[in-house]
Design brief:
Strand order of the largest sheet: 1-2-3
Radius of gyration: 14 Å
Shape: globular
Number of strands: 3
Mean pLDDT: 88
Largest sheet: 3 strands, antiparallel
Order of helices and strands: HHHHEEEHHHH
Number of domains: 1
Length: 147
């Protein structure tokens, strides 16, 4: 696990505005996806964890981008998560960046098992719940042992 990037994700979520874990990012009133945190805040639209990460400066400085639907993508250069190079998108991109297993990244992004993982349906997940999960990662030495 990349604890530096987990901390970056926590910092991003602390700055995040509206959260909606059911979509990467809502479109603004012009039916567009925002490309920066500032525009996402000023539009008042919502995004999920991965959507907020995808427009953050931390993500961009690590070589990440956002897709036309607001989801994250990054060119992977091998890691413990996935030793193969290639483009990673959506929850897989978050897993690569955080260097956590795909299933854990999918649960974190509310792609799979969100009720079991967060204890509530997707539409009721708050940024505080997401931050709590991320902070829990920092307490573990090896996330692979806890799946």
């Amino acid at each position: 696990m990349n604890k530096v990037n987990v901390q970056k994700a926590i910092d991003i979520m602390k700055r995040a505005g509206k959260i909606d874990m059911r979509k990467w990012q809502e479109k603004n009133d012009k039916n567009e996806i925002c490309s920066t945190e500032e525009t996402l805040h000023s539009c008042g639209t919502a995004a999920c964890l991965a959507g907020w990460i995808a427009v953050s400066e931390e993500w961009k400085s690590d070589g990440g981008y956002h897709c036309l639907n607001g989801s994250p993508y990054i060119n992977a250069h091998g890691s413990l998560y996935d030793p193969h190079d290639g483009i990673k998108t959506e929850a897989e991109a978050i897993g690569y960046w955080l260097d956590i297993p795909f299933l854990e990244a999918s649960k974190l992004c509310a792609t799979y098992y969100s009720v079991e993982y967060y204890g509530v349906p997707d539409e009721f997940i708050t940024k505080e719940m997401v931050i709590e999960k991320l902070e829990g990662f920092l307490e573990k030495d090896n996330l692979f042992c806890y799946i």
